[in-house]
Specification:
The chain has 2 domains: 30 residues, no CATH class; 99 residues, no CATH class. By secondary structure, the chain is mainly alpha-helical.
Length: 129
Amino acid sequence: TDVSLDPRLLAPGDPRLRTYEGVLPGFTVRQFLPEHQKPWLSWLSAQGIDSSAGHPDVHRPVGEPSDPVTNAPPIYSQDQTPTAFLAGEFIRWLGEQERGAPWFAHLSFISPHPPFIVPEPYNAMYDPA
């Protein structure tokens, strides 16, 4: 998530001062999805999608030059986006919770966010110009 610790409480050389991707004290993480997106990329690979390009190249359009404005879709489908992955992990976690017991969840959906590329059918809904 995009949460930074209070720098006044950390030593000057603490590595947590060099990132905004963190979790506040007292919270536990079920699915951390940092900027490099490795958990999602592994999930894609398990589904037979070649995610070896890694982040951010996995978001480049299939068979298209690296033009920043394009309608070309990525290699993954609408059900394989980072958003779908995170939502699916939350739904799975929710199903594991004790019925009637209180719970709290913080999901950080970052899309839409650069690179602005979406799978079919969403890629054809708007003119990229």
